[in-house]
Amino acid sequence: MNEKALLTYLRAKLSPSRYEHSLGVAQTARELAERFGADPQKAYAAGLAHDLSKWMEPDEMLKYAAARALPVDEYERCDPKLLHAKISASLLKEEFGESDEGVLNAVRRHIAGSPGMSLLDAVVCLADWIEPGRRYADVPKLRETAKLSLEMALRDALAATMRVLLEKKKAIHPQSLESYNAIVWMIERKEVFK
Ligand SMILES: [Fe+2]
Ligand SMILES: [Fe+2]
What we know:
The protein is mainly α.
């Protein structure tokens, strides 16, 4: 991946706060990777890139997905901004030369996780929640939990995401619930992300 070109792009295309958020997620993902045994370089790369297409308007996202034959589900059709994960992965590969499927998957899965997600996916997904710029009420507790258990912290982050959506009377993507269930079962079986 061409990190310098990606940084220039992010600074030009994203709002200052989203640019700072991207740097925060990259740094936090690297720290979590060091803590839990994922590849710190890959975590940093995926964190930096995870929101790289978030500047696109919803119409533009739908057009991009159609042009690349990216699958669009009914939730993404209703809320095209959800496509930013898939589109960021696609741009990261095409424009910035990222060829590592682990990094690309971590970008693709950063919103809702995925049942069977990897350690790297989990680290990037959690970093998106707890990077230093995040101010949600749940975040201080999540940061504490993240010092002890990646699985428990990500379970709680997914629960918090779904709780926020319920409070806003918004639809919940079934992938968030599937990821949550998968992690609950992992914890019951005393398994950890690999
Ligand atoms: Fe995102
Ligand atoms: Fe993000």
